[in-house]
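Example complex used in Figure S2.
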Amino acid sequence: MIERSGLATILDHPSGAAGLAVVLLFIAIAIFAPFIAPYGPFEVVYNADQSVVRLAPPDGRTWFGTTNQGMDVFSQMVWGARVALLVGLLSAIGSVVLGTIIGLVSGYFGGWIDEILMRATDIAFGIPFLPFAMVVIAIARPSLVLVILLVVFFLWRTTARVVRAQVLSLKARPFVWAARAAGAGPARIIVHQILPNVLPLAFLYMAIGVQTGVMLEAALSFLGFGDPNVQSWGIMLNAAFRAGAMRSAWWWVLPPGLALSFFVIAVFMITRAYEERLNPQLRMI
Amino acid sequence: MSAEPVIEARALRKSFPARGGALKAVDGIDLAIQAGEVLGLVGESGSGKTTAGMTLLQLHEPTSGEILFQGIGSLKGANRRTLVAFRRQAQIVFQNPYEALNPRETVEQALREPLIIHFPGDKDAQREKMLRAMERAGLIPAETYLSRYPHQLSGGQLQRVAIARAIALEPRFLVADEPVSMLDVSIRAGILNLIRRFASELKMAVLYISHDLSTMRHVCSTIAVMYLGRIVEEGPAEQILDAPLHPYAQALVAAVPMMGGRGKRPRVQLAGAIPNAAELPPGCRFHPRCPKAFARCREAEPQLRSIGETRRVACHLYD
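Predicted assembly (604 residues):
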């Protein structure tokens, strides 16, 4: 296999390059949100006569119109990119780090350690995310940190299983035996010989984790279990739903819905381009 | 042959758990290798020769039996420190050079690995030993290879890197597990010469594992023929290759294609394939395939016994 950087492979792939462009756009929006958004995430827009601009369709002043509470939909969408990226990245990193460590330990040591960790993974696979997360949030208090932790708890299992399978094949390879013959202990072998060879896979699951994390946060928020102190795309949809505006105020529903879709599809296209490098058989499909 | 061998195995056994019992990959072998000697271990796939090599290196824990190493003593129940001391002295070269190196490590990283473990902190000594090993393995000029990745090297170069890694610690015992079987014929001789020189010049004890008898004459001083986990014949390389005693050894020798005339050899063809080591036949384990089997072969397992001064064979034909 010719080794190439992941970035080059993604850029070579038309949909990968397009996905990367869209994600970079969202990252720019998130970073420069204070300069792009004309209003704050919870700021109410007033008319000249101090009356609130409720459910106004798009016009020159509020580009995407306003909500029933008179907040600027465009600004909320821009601020929502921050939450989406934060949740997506943190839950992806958290779940992949946890899953990779569990997969490495489980696969390398085998025996009862593997048995315990894999049974734990089986149990984790049995937990349905939404009902479980809703119960936890109902008992605790809704917050972004809790949502991220729940998504991590939901996502680590897949990475753990995939990494473990990879480790099982890697640890039987001659270069690992050679390291053993050289006197390397388990920690040294895992870090120097095995980890570098599972990193590409871990990176793939990280990208998938970003996508899933954003979707799960949106789903929870739409159901009313989001952090009320932040403005995310899911929370915007929830507010529109509660206001009964889903059918009437299209300008309120479309921006968060489309932003969510574009972001998730863009990340998917990147993972797909990257996955084709790891698994060349996909190219035939 | 009176000197103390570098490594000696006594009644070495290694079995793996298998469905409905144990797979006896190595089923009681005795062997000893002196400094400067190349012992060729030959047998079909599945005869247990690779497992024997790995077990001698303590990469597999022996099921029973004992391994003695010169200067260290018995490795049975060795503690971590003894094992590290042993690892410094005993190394291995694998069959497949394309899998023997970590695809994400440069040549330098791969070669430094054993040196970092055994000479931690001493960067100058590490570099010196690394470069010396590379030159001994024929990677010249050594510096040009250091920053390369495995995918940038040819099979022969990869095998030389793997050899350099194995000899970087200047071990006294080297296992070469089919080191040329995956290489192009044109570069085999170069690698085999290296192995022969390690024995003759660096006084290593070498276990050369192969299924290919034609390379053995070139490299080995002694040959042990293995069948289903047991050594069936052992002796000086020339004698075994020219006049094998055991029917299995005769079949292996007859299978080597010959060029020109070294005289006619009887043709021996074996029926069937090597049986599963988890279901050993009763009596002599070779009897179902042996062209000369008789009644006793089905009942009693033959033991290795001396024939003349230097040879040993396990076959009822020579009782």
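The radius of gyration of chain B is 20 Å. The first strand of chain B starts at residue 7 and ends at 18.
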